[in-house]
């Protein structure tokens, strides 16, 4: 534990750590801002919403959600996983204002989920699936950003589905990009990757964040290549709305149509958004906690409440639904972010860039931003992670690999669902194989077998116990010991008693020890009661 000077007051210590964290959070916030900017615009474009809607969602996700969230590293904003739902909802509801009402109601539903403590579901995602999801996100970043690094930007930044909205898939998009790449984009992306890898090795120079240097390089590259025969095209650049003043800025906001409160379709859309956004948020929070270098645990129920407040705010001013986003959050971790101030600052940078420097932001080529995401993706899917999961055993490695493949070939939620099913299969398989312990001894020509049941014997163990009992040889003494068992399922009890009744036909003598005729499920003490007992 780090020692502090006893002469320091509490205020001095607080200031010391605040300053220490700010030296990491400020540079990290710039990286997250640069990553979030094209993602906010691309997701808005793919959702059929105004570009401003994507930006305002990112601003609210940074400033509002981070302020209420208990997570120190999570970054919220518009999510690619919701684009299909949003696009369909805007079309089916008939107007963007009606859709905004659904976003507000989705936030209300998330508030309710947080208050009833539905966030605890996030604690039940297996670590192998979460690790697989992180690795899959890393591979997805690499595969999806390669076309942008090559200067082919027909698809929006942030489309993480295998089948893209431009009728390409992940692999055909790369093949197409290789056939008509841009020399300017390739040069900028290669130089950017070199800076991102080499610059941090020089500790004295690392005071200036490598991603910031990459963006400066991109702006100068745009100016240099503009005077050559292969300049950057408009579709290869960042695009944000240019506003001439604060009054024009206020004119970009849109209010929800509250006259549609009686429209039942609005509630269906709101519930769908709330469930999908909450699941994606819980997955992201669990994943970010795993790569947090300080290993903090985020309160999931509080996160749902923060997301609810964010979506209510976003819907009220014309924004899109939001979630905690793994790409932005991973960039935050890998850039050295330490507290929620990084996410809050990133929201401020989005706002300030929109108000004061839109022309400069629009000079940044997407290829240099793609380089930042390529390096982030590599850090998430490093080879050492695969080795680590392999040494953990097949019951961890198989769900890990299946999750990666499923996410790559579908999308985040579907891939995680497949990984969960495989993980549950291994869980049940392990549970079925461990319902008892047994010991065999010999007395002359007769064998004695003692079967000691486990603490919990469920109906899933019935088949394994039945197989063992059926294969016991004739003329054997069998003792079935239930002294350790707190609960034995009625189906298993029936199997044991039936075996005892019929075993004499094989010359088998069965003795039951400490086995009751009926068991009740042991009541669990509430977690808050346990905490109270510990604190006494």
From TrEMBL:
Keyword Membrane belongs to the record: yes
Top-level lineage group: Bacteria
Keywords: Membrane, Transmembrane, Transmembrane helix
Main location: membrane
Membrane topology of the entry: Multi-pass membrane protein
This protein's record includes keyword Membrane: yes
Transmembrane segments: 26-45, 51-68, 75-93, 99-116, 128-150, 170-198, 205-226, 266-285, 305-327, 348-377, 397-428
InterPro entries: SLC26A/SulP_dom (IPR011547), SLC26A/SulP_fam (IPR001902)
Localization per record: Membrane
Domain spans labelled SLC26A/SulP transporter: 22-389
GO biological process: transmembrane transport
GO cellular component: membrane
Pfam families cross-referenced by the UniProt entry: Sulfate_transp
PANTHER family, sorted: SULFATE TRANSPORTER
Protein name, as recorded: SulP family inorganic anion transporter
